[in-house]
Amino acid sequence: MTRQKVQKLDRKNAIPEDDDDFVTRPPAEGKGRVILMLQGHPSRFWRQLADGLAEDGHRVLKVHFGLADAVFWGRRSAIHYRGRFSRWRAFLTELVQREGVTDIFYYADRLPYHAVALEVAGVLNRRAWAIEHGYLRPDWLTIEADGMGALSRFPRTRAEIEALAEGVSPPDMTVLYRHDFAVEAFNEVSFGLLQSFGRVLYPLHVSDRPVPPVIDYLSWLPELVLTGRRARDAMALTRRLIRERIAYNLVPLQLEVDYQIRGSSPYSRLTDFIEEVIASLARTAPADRHVVFKVHPLDNGLGRWFSRIPAIAERYGVADRVHVLRGGNLGRMVTRSCGVVLVNSTVGIHALRAGTPLCVLGTAIYDVPGLSHQGGLDRFWTQPEPVDRAFFETFERAISTIQVKGSFFAPDGRDDAIAQIRARMRPTAPVAGATGGGRGAHGSAATSKGAKADPSLTTHPPFAARVPGE
């Protein structure tokens, strides 16, 4: 990758100044794009992807928002944004226009800076790409126009999904890439602490974290001490459910800080979702129906679910039918359950693949008639709508068009995923999830007559960027 000196910024206004030290190199005529990369995944993935894109003739720019961005990026050139969040839109608009940016890449599409970038891309008719963990798990990553969840352009009707899946092979669900969880934990913790302790270098940076990283990570200590006990309790509860043939519904919990909760659901707190499920259980479920809340494996324990959920159940008079566990065999629990209730977790796709009825209470791309239950939670306990297995296979083929086989952490998985993303960015290759001419301010675009349905052509409600706490 061509080494460029870091662009100098006016700290007061955070607008790039003309400076000969900032070397701009236009892409080769008719070949490359100008790709602006914002904050990436806490791994080597982002910088390796940048190197690969540069090798293909694209010009790559990078903006840092904190020390972790700089450390994970390495010694490659970058623009350090140290201005106020309120000035980010003007800064980005001028940068995109000045440098001829054609595409914007980001990980975590709901970060405040990334939400603004999506809006700027729409106004300036540029492409915006979210690169995230896959809808399909494991071994898949998502590359999707604009973003995931409520931002997704994936088709929302059966006819459109069937059209998109036409001629697409079933995704290979063979597990190819493995990595030690310690590698993932080290990267996540390192990124968070670098952002926190590097605040002196980026004093105006707006964090989206509701809890400071130090508190977040220290809260894990009690959970680590209780790991063995939690695993034994989960095994004992699973055995009891099977032995006594207890009818239960599984409720997999997501992280309360997850933007799929904060931005793609009607719940401001996970407690609101939990209370809605328990209230409905008490109101309309059969008297012998139990509910098992499964805590997310990366939950830090600050939610105190092992005390709060039983307390809510006690208020509704169903404490003997509500259980909380951490660990256990997710696949077995999904298969043996009467149905799964969730906000919008990717566990939903596991449930559909198993043919287990599914009730979605948030916004999810798989919440489609024929896949998920459409009759409301109160009816789900007694009249769950079945999964159309043939349609799910079609859905899985369609969704693979916005997936790449690979991994953020496993070296061979990184290489494979990056190779596929590079292929999708080449001018001669069809790019799933985007139109050749970009989209307008409202995210709309036109398709040529007879062209196959494309997930980027589906409009969605606009998402307004805001600073956390506003």
Short key terms for the protein model shown above:
disordered C terminus, 17 helices, alpha/beta, 470 residues, disordered N terminus, 7-stranded mixed sheet, Rossmann fold, 11% strand
Summarize the structure.
This protein is an alpha/beta fold and 470 residues long.
Mean pLDDT, all residues: 86
Task: Catalogue the unreliable spans.
Answer: 1-30, 430-470
Helix content: 25-40%
The tally of strands reads 12
In the sheet with the most strands, the strands line up as 3-2-1-4-5-6-12
Assign the CATH superfamily of one domain.
Glycogen Phosphorylase B
Radius of gyration, whole Å: 23 Å
Assigned CATH class of one domain: Alpha Beta
CATH topology of one domain: Rossmann fold
Shape: globular
Distance between the termini: 40 Å
Instruction: Label the structural class.
Output: alpha/beta
Major beta sheet summary: 7 strands, mixed
Task: Spell out the helices and strands N to C.
Answer: EHEHEHEHEEHHHHHEHHEHEHEHEHHEH
How many helix segments? 17
What share of the residues does DSSP label as strand, in percent?
Answer: 5-15%
3D structure, described in words:
The structure is a single chain. The protein is α/β, with parallel strands linked by helices and 470 residues long. The protein has a domain at 228-398: Rossmann fold. The protein has helices at 45-55, 67-73, 88-99, 112-124, 158-165, 181-197, 213-218, 220-225, 227-243, 259-262, 270-284, 305-315, 330-336, 347-354, 377-380, 389-399, 411-425, and strands at residues 34-37, 59-64, 79-80, 103-106, 127-133, 140-145, 248-252, 290-294, 322-325, 340-342, 358-360, 403-405. The strands form 3 sheets. A 7-stranded mixed sheet has the order 3-2-1-4-5-6-12. A 3-stranded parallel sheet has the order 7-8-9. α1 packs across α17 (411-425). The longest helix has 17 residues, at 181-197. The radius of gyration is 23 Å and the shape is globular. Residues 1-30 and 430-470 have low confidence and may be disordered.
